[in-house]
Design goal:
This protein is 36% helix and 16% strand. By secondary structure, the chain is of the alpha+beta class. It folds into 3 domains: 74 residues, no CATH class; 173 residues, no CATH class; 104 residues. The structure holds zinc ion.
């Protein structure tokens, strides 16, 4: 490697570092120079002209520094979206805090860190409030109840979030995260240019600098970049005047919100599920096509006390036939069941035909024959 090449490598690294950390290039160059123990880039460059070369180890550690702030960069410019190069369910990182194992995942820019009985979710937007979920069943034995453990976990999740954000901003045009002198920024998704933007969600007016800072999420409501527009077209003809969004002066990530959750599958015995189970039981007890129609068309209502009524058509469900399976299921569910009878809800003529056979195929053939002889058969699309 010639001197020229070494310096070229350093400049390329500095560019990536600048993009990932949204720094002006000269600052990135200076920081990289500091890594080689020079006061600033100019000092490094003039030494390089005199023949100074970074050692292989130092160059490798500089690459490491840049990669840390920008995962997935493997020493060359990448033209595919870095996030696409990793399978979605493969963890970014796995490890242990004390005796407790954890895995860190990324999903569409959000960070999801989890261990046994706890998880931490951090949204893509800068300064997004982390949500800590603690499994209810774990109770006080869950390590996330321990503040020290939680702080250690949050440090890891924050770092992962920062890396992912750096990856996102590296994908974007430089002008998306670095306003020009007029404050103009380029929308990272569709490329519009403006110094003034509007949020489709909260109608807030946002400056280009605010968007660059907040990775194109609305600083007021957190809406994602697809909801940010240069023109508030949706307000055309309305009285709403977009107001500048509130700017928070303390640029600190808020403390996490801690939620106790129960993520076990829960059998909800509400009206809908009770009537679904009762109808399933009715169908089980139905032998003829007529009875099956009766079960499908039965009116089933469940009141607030979970007591149920089943109204069966007398022509479809024989009056003397007890819906035994439905009654047994009702008892199992602790539901008081009342039966009622109605008439004239059958959907086809000659309801008696529905009880002649147990085969739906035979029943349909009988319907064709009967309608053919005594009536008319219309197929969909034939009109009338
Ligand atoms: Zn908004």
């Amino acid at each position: 490697m010639t001197t020229k090449n070494e310096i070229y490598t350093l400049k390329t690294l500095a560019k990536r570092y600048a993009r990932a950390n949204r720094l002006p290039l000269h600052q990135a160059l200076d920081q990289l120079a500091a890594h080689f123990e020079f006061p600033h880039w100019a000092a490094l460059a003039s030494k390089a002209k005199q023949g100074w070369l970074p050692s292989v180890e130092r160059l490798a550690s500089a690459e490491g520094l840049v990669q840390q702030s920008q995962p997935n960069v493997v020493g060359q410019e990448m033209f595919i979206e870095p996030r696409m190069s990793r399978p979605v369910h493969e963890p970014l990182r796995q490890g242990k805090i004390g005796d407790h194992e954890f895995s860190v995942f990324e999903s569409f820019g959000d960070i999801h860190m989890e261990g046994d009985g706890w998880r931490i979710l951090i949204g893509e937007a800068q300064f997004a409030q982390p949500v800590v979920e603690i499994e209810k069943t774990q109770g006080s034995s869950c390590p996330a109840n321990d503040r020290e453990f939680l702080d250690a976990a949050l440090r890891i999740a924050d770092e992962a979030a920062a890396n992912v954000r750096a990856g996102i901003s590296t994908d974007w045009p430089r002008r998306s995260t670095k306003p020009d002198a007029e404050g103009t920024v380029v929308h990272p998704l569709h490329g519009d240019r403006s110094a003034e933007w509007f949020c489709l969600h909260c109608d807030g007016k946002i400056t280009g600098a605010q968007l660059a800072e907040n990775l194109w999420h609305c600083p007021a409501c957190g809406a994602s970049p697809i909801d940010i527009f240069a023109v508030p077209f949706w307000l055309e003809g309305s009285d709403v005047k977009p107001e500048p969004v509130q700017v928070f002066t303390d640029r600190q990530r808020p403390d996490p919100r801690i939620e106790v959750v129960d993520s076990r599958p829960t059998l909800k015995l509400d009206g809908d599920s009770i009537s679904l189970l009762l109808r399933t039981a009715l169908l089980e007890g139905a032998t003829t096509p007529g009875e099956r129609l009766g079960a499908l068309l039965a009116e089933i209502s469940v009141d607030d006390d979970n007591d149920a009524w089943i109204t069966l058509d007398e022509d479809l469900w024989p009056e003397l036939k007890e819906p035994e399976e439905a009654m047994a299921v009702a008892e199992l569910l602790g539901v008081e069941l009342e039966l009622a009878v109605t008439c004239m809800t059958f959907p086809f003529a000659w309801p008696g035909l529905g009880h002649v056979t147990t085969s739906t195929r035979e029943y349909v053939q009988m319907l064709f024959d009967a309608y053919g002889e005594h009536g008319v058969v219309h197929r969909g699309g034939e009109g009338g």
